[in-house]
């Protein structure tokens, strides 16, 4: 009988990596994915933690992601564009491959974009954003998903939950980072309500007939709503344009058509833009990083929270004290390790 | 006694330009400003039409914008960054000066940014966005404003209404364009409620004590709220970082400190990013513009509207039939023309 267990971060990382290796992923895929899954768990971001392992294995079992993918760095057309072909694998190893060159180009030109093509995406974009901020660069990242969100004024799913993420480096501390779905809620959150048997808050979703609903199942069969009405809807549409049509990759509708289900991780591309604050500020008064700190102090000083603040507190705690998983979660890891793809219904 | 008058677009343009010339603006300033003011009126976007003339003249009278400013194109640090020094004048002539080179660099590199510094901004960003889309490029534009918006969870004004704008070129038609304040409402909208003596909708603002209010005066003395709760607040913060701290220009708080009032047009910078869809899509399947059209059809096909659709309809009508101003509006133009800065209290 399992009990709750507290793992050092590195131990949990090795354990998750082993699950993926036994399930048939090559080293480059397994390493990157395990890192992002454990990062979610470490940051107390449960909807992007070990709960996601089953979905990735299900996607693998369905033949919708390549376990032996070897991402390749391509010479982009136009020096400010860097392209990584994910080779049908997960987005994370493709990002890891491109980050160094992206940072180099952003420092040289002032700004550069990393396009990831042909990837399966299952994690939060803060992972990519924090990679870029760790290079001392600001970052905007976005990607489509699969059609689960109705445009404002519409009555059926077309857009994805289309995350929009941003990061700003803070010397000597955690970066300023936000990363949110452009739907009112992330699909993972609705899934958690469904599992808990709880009704959704009002305004999150419409049913298959286009009527408002608080039933998670009806919502999953219908459509979610964009955050902030027509404004969030517009941003979600922008994300379809810039990180699907523009980069020559699947949009949310095409991804859903390709998969035939929302039970698998979506396939599409990603757009990650890196900015060099030093370059942009050159010749102007003031240090951009110092000026940003003054802004953050003014936000926190009036009692408002910075986004990701709780996540970073959880990270600091986990780094010190380890990550505690419940008995059920430990049993899940054991089962996924021992049974591999056979554990997936 | 004046009556309602219908002007051909070019006639109104000449009339507004004459107001600015008589008020002391040089040709480059007067031409660009008149064009953007008349564009607002033509598009039935009254909050950015001739109603704005008084505010610009008030800013001029207060000595907070230079009537003889000559924007200068500077060699940016980093080839993807182009900088225009607005020379303390309005943003629009600076943008007009930089657009051609911005487009050239975006086509060459795949992506480029135009930074405008030391400008007074009083118009909507869709003007800049449509300039970029007319070059066949996609565009993200943003700028701060002055502190009138509380961050989510806060109780006092810090952020500006910080517009976020995006455009995508549509061959043979009006572009896909959105441009919205990251506050629930634009400050101009609250001003229109105040003038009409009408209460604000719930959720737009807090008073000076941080309490919810529907009184326009209390809202103008307190703070507006971000759209979409913490998500809109995060985007508003991103805009302070990218288009103030990063580009070495005033943020919303600094701009308000500089002006000492919200009755004048704010001074700060602007960030305009141009993307070449051809470059980004190179080597990938599908034409990005065709794929975008399929998306727009799916949005419109389910009864949802594209942003700016009503604005473009108004534009087409005004281009055919002219712009009709009320008797009061015509009298305002006459007064501003004849009395110049003396008409400004």
How many DSSP E strands of chain A?
A: 12
Coarse shape of chain A:
globular
Element-level helix/strand string of chain A: EHHHEEHEHEEEHEEHEHHEHHHEH
Q: What radius of gyration of chain A results from the CA coordinates?
A: 20 Å
Oligomeric composition of the shown chains: homodimer
Largest interface: A-B, 78 and 78 residues
- Estimate the mean pLDDT confidence of chain A: 95
The share of residues in helices of chain A is 40-55%
CATH topology of chain A: Ribosomal Protein S8, Chain: A, domain 1
Terminal residue distance of chain A: 23 Å
> What is the overall number of helices of chain A?
13
**CATH architecture verdict of chain A:** 2-Layer Sandwich
Write down the CATH class of chain A: Alpha Beta
Number of domains of chain A: 1
| Widest sheet, order of strands of chain A | 2-3-4-11-5-6-7
Summing up helix and strand content along with how strands pair, one would put the structural category of chain A as alpha+beta
Descriptive keywords:
44% helix; 16% strand; homodimer; Ribosomal Protein S8, Chain: A, domain 1; 345 residues; alpha+beta
Overview of this protein structure:
The structure is a homodimer of 345-residue chains. By secondary structure, chain A is of the alpha+beta class. Chain A has a single domain, classed as Ribosomal Protein S8, Chain: A, domain 1. In chain A, 44% of the residues lie in helices and 16% in strands. Chain A contains 13 helices and 12 strands. The first copy, chain A, has helices at residues 9-22, 27-42, 53-61, 91-109, 126-133, 187-196, 216-221, 230-245, 252-259, 277-281, 288-301, 309-321, 327-339, and strands at 5-7, 72-74, 81-85, 111-120, 138-142, 164-168, 176-180, 205-206, 212-213, 223-224, 267-275, 323-325. Chain A has a 7-stranded mixed sheet with strand order 2-3-4-11-5-6-7, sandwiched between helices. A 3-stranded antiparallel sheet of chain A has the order 9-8-10. Chain A has a two-stranded antiparallel sheet with strand order 1-12. Chain A starts with a strand and ends in a 6-residue tail after the last helix. The model of chain A has no long low-confidence stretch (mean pLDDT 95).
């Amino acid at each position: 009988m399992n009990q709750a267990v507290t793992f050092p971060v590195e131990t949990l990382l090795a354990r998750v990596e082993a699950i993926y290796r036994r399930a048939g992923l090559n080293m480059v895929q397994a390493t990157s994915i395990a890192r992002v899954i454990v990062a979610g768990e470490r940051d107390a971001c449960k909807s992007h933690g070990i709960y996601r392992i089953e979905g990735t294995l299900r996607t693998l079992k369905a033949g919708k992601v390549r376990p032996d993918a070897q991402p390749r760095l391509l010479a982009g057309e136009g020096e400010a564009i860097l392209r990584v072909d994910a080779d049908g694998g997960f987005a994370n190893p493709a990002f890891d491959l491109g980050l160094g060159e992206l940072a180099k180009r952003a420092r040289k030109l002032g700004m550069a974009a990393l396009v990831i093509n042909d990837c399966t995406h299952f994690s939060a974009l803060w992972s990519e954003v924090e990679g870029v901020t760790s290079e001392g660069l600001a970052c905007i990242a976005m990607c489509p998903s699969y059609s689960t969100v109705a445009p404002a004024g519409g009555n059926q799913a077309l857009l994805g939950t289309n995350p929009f993420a941003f990061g700003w480096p803070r010397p000597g501390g955690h970066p300023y980072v936000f990363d949110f779905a452009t739907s009112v809620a992330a699909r993972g959150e609705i899934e958690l309500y469904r599992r808990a048997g709880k009704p959704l808050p009002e305004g999150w979703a419409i049913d298959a007939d286009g009527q408002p609903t608080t039933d998670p199942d009806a919502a999953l069969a219908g459509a979610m709503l964009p955050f902030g009405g027509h404004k969030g809807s517009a941003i979600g549409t922008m994300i379809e344009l810039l990180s699907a049509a523009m980069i020559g990759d699947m949009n949310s509708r095409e991804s859903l058509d390709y998969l035939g289900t929302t039970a698998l991780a979506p396939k599409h591309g990603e757009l990650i833009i890196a900015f060099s604050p030093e370059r942009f500020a050159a010749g102007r008064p003031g240090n951009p990083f110092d000026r940003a700190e003054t802004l953050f102090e003014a936000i926190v000083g009036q009692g408002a929270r910075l986004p990701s603040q709780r996540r970073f507190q959880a990270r600091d705690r986990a780094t010190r004290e380890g990550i505690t998983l419940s008995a059920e979660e430990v049993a899940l890891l054991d089962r996924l390790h021992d049974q591999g793809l056979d554990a997936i219904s």
